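Appendix C reproduces, verbatim, an entry submitted by the partner laboratory led by Prof. M.T., so that reviewers can inspect both the input and the predicted structure.
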Amino acid sequence: MDGYTVVRSAKLINFSDKRTIEQIIETFCNEIRHANNEYALVITPNGIAYKLSGTTGTVNPGIIDSDSLKGSIIVHNHPISPGELMGDSFSRADIVFAIKHKTKMQYLVSGERRNAFTYNGSISEEEMW
């Protein structure tokens, strides 16, 4: 999972199957929780999953077309070494991305810590700050 890559799933996922989605997210979180680079998983409402790799400081789900991102679930990590704890949270860029692309839910993984937020569409990028 190094460099800038995007891998699209061959098999479609039933986006309304919460249990399957939770299992996919849990597996991905366990894979990336102590990664040295940032990674993302994007699950779109039409059932396509994308795995993206980035660098130590960023991963860019925006390389997926905006129509596919609308209503999607996105999971990404912030790099942290095993055994370390980080009082981590979503960046301004993460929140603005959710507003801009109207994502459904975002998850953040940093070691053992996990955060999530849902964007309900009631605030604009300008109103955010």
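Residues 18-32 form the longest helix (15 residues). Additional entries are available on request from the coordinating office.
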